Amino acid sequence: MRINELPIVGELLESGAEDRIFDSLLLVGPLLILVIALVGRSVVTTGLAAAYVVFFVAYVLYRGIRH
Amino acid sequence: MNEAVETIGRDLGRMFQALAGLLFVSILIPIVWGEYYAIPALLVSGLIPFAIGYALSSRFRKATKPGKLHGMIIAALGWFCVAIFGSLPFVLIAWTVEFAPPILGEPSQTSTLAAFTNPLNALFESMSGFTGTGLTMTDNEEVLPRTLQWWRSFIEWVGGVGVIVLTTAILARPGSGSLTLYESEARSERIHPSIVSTVQTIWWIFILFTFVSILLLWVVGMPIWGAINHGMTGLATGGFSITDNSIATYDSAAIDFALLPIMLLGSIAFPVHYLILRGDLRNLYADLQTRWVFIYMGIGTALLTALVYVGDTYDSLFTAFRYGSFQFISAATCAGFQTAVDATNVALGRWPTQAQLTVSFGMLIGGAAGSTVGGIKLIRALTLLKGIRFRISDVFYPETAVRRLRINGRRLNEQEMRQEFEEAAIITALWLIFLGIGTFVLLLLLPQGEYTLENVLFEVASAQGNVGLSAGITGPESLPTLGKIMFLFNMWIGRLEIIPVLVLLRAGFRRGGLY
């Protein structure tokens, strides 16, 4: 199955920076926010949220260096 | 039926359907928060634009593609109508609570919510939201139902990118005249050759950045509901808050500083974001506007910090930097979040005059064209400066000399330069004219001696620049009815960069060949 054939999110994912990591961050983002809303602030959720933000920044820099 | 009316009707119908979609999606919020009394209001608010939109788009589905004139009229009229329909949840929820029907529970009325029983206040809030202004008719956002807190943030988030851009991403197909509409909504940059693909990429970037913003705000200590709302309105540089004292409520330096990169992200053009995500980081300094976003924010921050520190507004350099950097970036990115309020510190309206005028100047220019910000935009200010320098230095060259002006890597010949300079000069002149008119009208309406000239200039610049910072004039009681109408106009023309609204008014007055 091609990525643009996925239901609902297919067209959206096809539109991005054509990078699977960014696409994954896009899909994981709302799930993580949902988990935080349900579980609340704990070491695990704080760590996950911080990891998401740090990973996003680090990956942008990594792509920049590789480019 | 006139061909132009059919085209305009068809495209307006699509916009209304997209708006109805937003309202139907928002029904999830009262379900999650148990505010069941808000569900009928949202349903009715969604059904009205859906029915009108469906009728228009199916009745005129064979209409021709929009031309430039149609595009501008659709943009101007569409944004106004969307603001009207967007005000329905405010009015209907406020009246639902006012009547408190037993079958829907017994929600308690507050003076904040009761203000929306006046449709003008609701329309003001909706226009402020969609245009990303952030001036508000509420006096305490905290007591609003979660549904309305969400709706305010949501319309700002959508308005930051644009209602037409939303409609194009969902409903338009290649070759449907989307480019004309896209350009009428104060956008011109393309990421891909296809405009539909361009707007989808814009949404992709915007949604990803929204998640990053929400999670960043939560990590630095903001509660999750606040992080969701402020992440959305911060990135959209709208500035609506869910707390009474905007960001000052949290009184946290970490949150203040975390919002700076979020607002800055919102003030950089989407095509540049796309290139950066593709790995081309050079654009952070190679792109003229992006480079100047940082230079302009840096200079403004330094100046404002110095003014409030030397003026003894704050007693430590760090505090002066904290408030100076936040308020300048909040103003220049047109976000309009406030940290300088009486409850926690010295309110913005009581800052030294020169500091208030520095913030006003920040609002006037704004950030990069092609981003979510308002104002005149950096590229226009730079075109004007470069054009003036080009004209003056012209005297020093022989008449036969062939000269070109370099702007953002483009080498413009005499005719291209004239065209760019003329466009920038016209929009700047119109912007200043309407700033003057707004100031004049407000000076006539407001009680003598209550507000200073810089307060009034600040407030009008804030409305027209779609910023939302307030010197204390805007409010359900403090702003007279005519002042609210004036601000509705200022916000509307500010978002669409004036010309489409003038085109609509001309067409309305002279019938513009429409029928």
From TrEMBL, chain A:
The chain crosses the membrane at residues 21-39, 45-62. Keywords: Membrane, Transmembrane, Transmembrane helix. It comes from the Archaea. This is Uncharacterized protein.
TrEMBL record, chain B:
It is found in: Cell membrane. The keyword Coiled coil does not apply. GO terms for cellular component: plasma membrane. Its main location: membrane. GO terms for molecular function: monoatomic cation transmembrane transporter activity. One of its GO terms (biological process) is metal ion transport. It comes from the Archaea. The keyword Ion transport applies. Keywords: Cell membrane, Ion transport, Membrane, Transmembrane, Transmembrane helix, Transport. It is a multi-pass membrane protein. It holds the Pfam family TrkH. The chain crosses the membrane at residues 12-33, 39-57, 69-95, 154-172, 202-225, 257-277, 289-310, 357-379, 424-446, 485-505. PANTHER family: TRK SYSTEM POTASSIUM UPTAKE PROTEIN TRKG-RELATED. Belongs to the TrkH potassium transport family. This is TrkH family potassium uptake protein. It comes from Natrinema versiforme.
